[in-house]
Specification:
- This protein is mostly helical and about 260 residues long.
- It has helices spanning about 1-25, 25-50, 60-75, 80-90, 90-100, 105-130, 140-170, 170-185, 200-205, 210-225, 230-255.
- It has one domain (about 1-255).
- It is about 80% helix and about 0% strand.
C-alpha cells in the first residue's frame, strides 16, 4: 500500500513538472491548435455545405468535430518521444533516473501531461465548433467520460511515442517514422468518414486502431448521446493504454542503455 502511494506521489510530481513547462511556454500548445482549427473551419465547413460524405442524421460538421478533437490529441501525444529524447540529451532524464523515482512514474507522469494538453485543445475546439452550429451534450456523466477518454488516449499515444523514441534513438529518424504512422492511424479511423464508407479490408483494420475507439466514444458522448458502445470503447482503450504504458517503461530503460 505504501509503495502504491509513493508511486502515485512521484507520478504526480513528474506530472506537475510537465504542466509547469506547458504554463511557462504555451506557444507550442497554441501552434499545435492551428491544424485542427483549420480542419474544422476549412475541411469541415466545405464538406458540410456540399454534403459530399453521407453521415446520416448528423451534419458533417457535427460528425467531424469529435474526429478533430481526437486528431488534435493524437498529433500532440504522438510526438512526446521527442521530449523524452531532449531530456536524455540534456541530462535531465539521467538526473531523474538517479533519484528514487521509478521508471513507471516518469513514463506515466509525462504521458499524463499529454492528456492535459489534449484537454486544453479539446476545450478550444468545442468552443469554436459551437458557433459553427454543432450541438454538444454537456451532461455531467458525458463530460466525465470525455475527460477520461482523452486522458487515456493521450497516455496511450504518448507511451507509444516513447517506445518509438527508444527504438529509433535519433530525432531525425523518429520524426520520419512517426509522420509515417500518424496519418494511417488518422485516416484508418472513423474521424473523417463513417467506417461503412471504407473498403471492406480497411474496415477490419480499423478494429485494431485505438483511434477508432477514441473517436467513437467521443462522438457518442459529445454528439449523439448514444452510450451503448462507450463501455466497450473504454475497456478496449484501457487495454491498449495499459499495454503501451508497460511498453513505454521498457522503452525508457532501453533508451538509457
Amino acid at each position: 500500500m505504501v509503495s502504491v502511494v509513493n508511486f502515485v506521489k512521484k507520478t504526480g510530481v513528474i506530472l506537475e513538472f510537465e504542466i509547469r513547462k506547458i504554463i511557462h511556454d504555451p506557444l507550442e500548445l497554441l501552434v499545435r491548435m492551428i491544424q485542427p482549427i483549420l480542419w474544422l473551419l476549412v475541411f469541415g465547413t466545405m464538406f458540410n455545405q456540399y454534403r459530399i460524405i453521407n453521415t446520416g442524421n448528423l451534419s458533417y460538421i457535427s460528425f467531424l468535430t469529435p474526429g478533430v478533437i481526437a486528431q488534435s490529441m493524437l498529433f500532440t501525444s504522438i510526438f512526446y518521444g521527442i521530449a523524452i529524447t531532449w531530456d536524455k540529451d540534456s541530462g535531465i532524464l539521467a538526473k531523474l533516473m538517479a533519484t528514487p523515482t521509478s521508471r513507471g512514474s516518469i513514463v506515466l507522469g509525462k504521458a499524463l501531461s499529454a492528456g492535459v494538453r489534449g484537454l486544453a485543445q479539446s476545450v478550444v475546439i468545442i468552443l469554436l465548433a459551437i458557433p459553427l452550429g454543432v450541438t454538444f451534450v454537456f451532461e455531467p456523466l458525458n463530460l466525465f467520460g470525455v475527460i477520461g477518454i482523452i486522458i487515456l488516449a493521450s497516455t496511450c499515444f504518448a507511451c507509444l511515442s516513447i517506445v518509438f523514441a527508444s527504438l529509433l534513438r535519433r530525432r531525425e529518424r523518429f520524426m520520419g517514422v512517426i509522420q509515417l504512422i500518424t496519418m494511417p492511424l488518422f485516416f484508418a479511423s472513423n474521424a473523417l468518414y463513417p467506417v461503412e464508407a471504407m473498403p471492406q479490408l480497411l474496415q477490419y483494420v480499423t478494429k485494431f486502431n485505438p483511434l477508432y475507439y477514441v473517436v467513437d466514444a467521443l462522438r457518442s458522448l459529445l454528439i449523439t448521446n448514444n452510450l451503448s458502445n462507450v463501455p466497450m470503447n473504454f475497456v478496449v482503450l484501457l487495454l491498449f493504454t495499459t499495454f503501451f504504458v508497460f511498453a513505454g517503461i521498457w522503452g525508457l530503460k532501453r533508451l538509457m542503455e
